[in-house]
Design goal:
Chain lengths: 374, 622
Amino acid sequence: MANAYTPGLKVTEQATVRKTRRLPILGEVLVQPGQEVRPDDVVARASLPGNPQTVNLAALLGVGEPQDVVHYLLKKPGDPVKKGEVIARTSGLFGLFKKEVTSPIDGTIEMVSTVTGQAVLREPPIPVEVTAYIKGKVVDVIPREGAIIETTGAFIQGIFGVGGERRGIIDVAVSSPDDILDAPAIGPQHKGKVVVGGSLMTGAAIKKAAQVGASALVAGGIIDTDLVEFLGHDIGVAITGHEDVPLTLMITEGFGRIRMAQRTFDLFRQLAGEECSINGATQIRAGVMRPEVIVPGHKPSGLVAQQNLQEGLAPGMPVRIIREPYFGLLAEVVDLPPELQVIETEAKVRILHARLQDGRVVTIPRANVEIIES
Amino acid sequence: MPEETVKTYKLDREINSVLATDCGSTTTKAILIEKVNGEYRLVVRGEAPTTVEAPFEDVTMGARNAIREVEELTGRRLLDENGVITPRQPDGSGVDIYLSTSSAGGGLQMMVAGVIKIMTAESAERAALGAGAIVMDTISIDDGRKPFEKIQRIRHLRPDMILLSGGIDGGTITHVVQIAELIAAAEPKPRLGIGFKLPIIYAGNADARSHMEKILGEKTDLRVVDNIRPVLEKENLGPAREEIHRLFMEHVMAQAPGYNKLMKWTPVPIMPTPGAVGLLMQQAARTFDLSLVGVDIGGATTDVFSVFGANHEFFNRTVSANLGMSYSICNVLLEAGVANIRRWIPFDIDEADLRNRIRNKMIRPTTIPQTMEELIIEQALAREALRLAFEHHKSLAVGLRGVQRTIDVSRTFADQQVSAGTLVDLMELGMLVGSGGVLSHAPRRVQSALMMLDAFVPEGFTRLTVDSIFMMPQLGVLSTVHPEAATQVFDRDCLIRLGEALAPVGPGRDGQDAVTVTMTPSQGKPVTVTVPFGSMALLPLPEGTTAEVEAKPHQGLDVGGGRGRTVKRTIEGGVVGFIIDARGRQPFVLPDDTKERNRKLIEWLRALDVYPAEYLDQLAKA
């Protein structure tokens, strides 16, 4: 394939971001094209049928033939019922030894089966709402499904995250992209905030952030075992975002202690004090979804270096190396030999030569570099 | 499970050129096959990123890009504004037929349900797997979950369709109706097409059909086919599988972006990728007349296929949805555990470092190993992914449970324990077919051979092969219209013969003679070697040649003829040669002590020349 390199993550002061906000089932859209929305505004709403419960009437009543249960029903399909209310009763012997079945829920009787003798009771509908998630403008409405919200502002993608959509004011809690974000750097002032660190967020920092009620933590890396401890379980497949966790985490570089890319760190510093929307949801497959921080309305300062990557890899371009033996290092492309070359593993691959920040020129498979997109 | 009649398509023209694509979840691959000097051969291939998802949302863009590569390489025009040009035109443009398979957009995701977990539910699972689906969950009356838990599960998952079975024809209907009621109560929604009704295929007791109509007819898109288990002793998977394929086209493909266009390019229905590979595996077993196990290890999933039986009548396919080399590589770590991965790595590595490396591979799946150390770690993970997927396969590839000599239901239950053995007989296994990047693209072919030996631990004689460029899906769908062309290309261009392996079975004493082998090649001088227990040896035997082999086991070991019995056989050569694996089988064990294990691993790697000698020397010194 022509592009044998990993498309980079977007880190930009100015981008137009569109978000499709969709209901899981058909419902009602509450906004109009052109309407301005805030992150918490509900843009669409639907009702999921309530949770059903089955009750084995035939067994509970001690009726031999399932079709006989209809004779003992006190409520018929469609009738509302209260929890504890008697829904079926046998007459018993001379009025004695009656058997009763009560409703386990508040809801309605949906159906009674004469084949199996079981009744299905349904709880009241569950409302489902979709919020705008970002501050912006409704640019399109998908009838009965949702809306598309557009905003212009800063946009930073991470490489991996956990936890869902949240928002908060950005606070950079370290002074350099090399710094470790540890517990002492986090305090009550971070309640509701998106706290940014440097090369690593420690397990203690994550705990402290949860304690003080921070919205999210962002850093270059995380130690695998700290993540597992935070989640309470290991991650097998790279689909995240639905974890029941007190705060969202986003890492920008990878697992381990890895210096946050200077441009990313500089941009976070520019954005300090501004409100952002953050989502840790990550899905690594065709149609990749990466975690993100969006700062609607941010005015570009021009202080953060910009790049134009429309043409793919080219000499002079800064790249990040994303695999051993130079994992996490930043470099500049020196040249891109067109022919395949044999690397240490004896595989024949497309390579590039890159100059590391310490001046060494090294050979890297093109698949193992990433461009930081702007 | 018993092999079924494959639906074939008759064509109104002679086929001299075939263009076929496989739209995978990340890459769309196109191959061009032509009849050259009376033989069908692969001419060129092209590939391009799949374009099912945003921002493209049109599968034909990726297909066009892949085909354009083929056009560039051949200098022939194959596409016009309407799609692939068919039939081939007098000016040389176009091809006689275009075909496609697809696993893009998550492939086919199904839920299956039956009355008894190990009977009708298991048959339904086999039908779905054989059709190329990922089975998200299997619901049955006796699955140990409470009714509300089953309902919650059905509601939570959004499959593409549900296959519902249960009961033999004429038997009791109560239980299957009960399952239908649970499904109806859950009001399940399909994954694709908001507002569409979920397709449900009913393949259970014929007497319950009117009840199904009543319970599910309105809430779902109900389809009724013949019972999957009309009597206890028979499994009838064909009609359910055909309906699954039809619905895959009508519902899943029709909803996926761009497929409506793609479907018009081809006269043959688009087939789920694993379904097509399964067809090819069955055909290969017949062609070579041996039992085989095939594996396709991808980034997200690992598919295992097996064909066993005297008449190759037992075909099984399983998919381990969360065992793969990128997207789900952390699940390999989770399921296998660090110790099992480390046991294949002949050097010390810190656990935290290993875990971080695996996580980083997950989040950046397209990267490749640059150092020997990284390659070894990746291949260690592959061994465990393959081993786990094969374990899973063996547990599902079983005979019809409880039906041997059964005359009534009570007997059926009594027999379950005795007849639940796997159909996968490692001594009967004649050929292993490996596919997927880590096997097809290993820098040295012997690395693929050793990964398969370590993961599958075949016994006796086994032919080892890999798929050169993963064209089995396209050849599978081609086999439905032109079996001869599919077989010829599979044999000549798809399969790379690595060679033959011989593994004596039984416990033995390290260092003492395990087997004496005399190999008389068709070209060259006879060689005799005696391989000690706990060792490996490699005898060169080039591709395209054969050899007569006499294997005399010692210490009461078995090489396929029974304990201590000499076996004679003709073997085929390959790019690796003839591997004698005397490390032991039943049990196959690695030393627990890290130093001793590393020493043994390095010894085996040297014997087969798996990695560069100077690198192994460095490891040995360390």
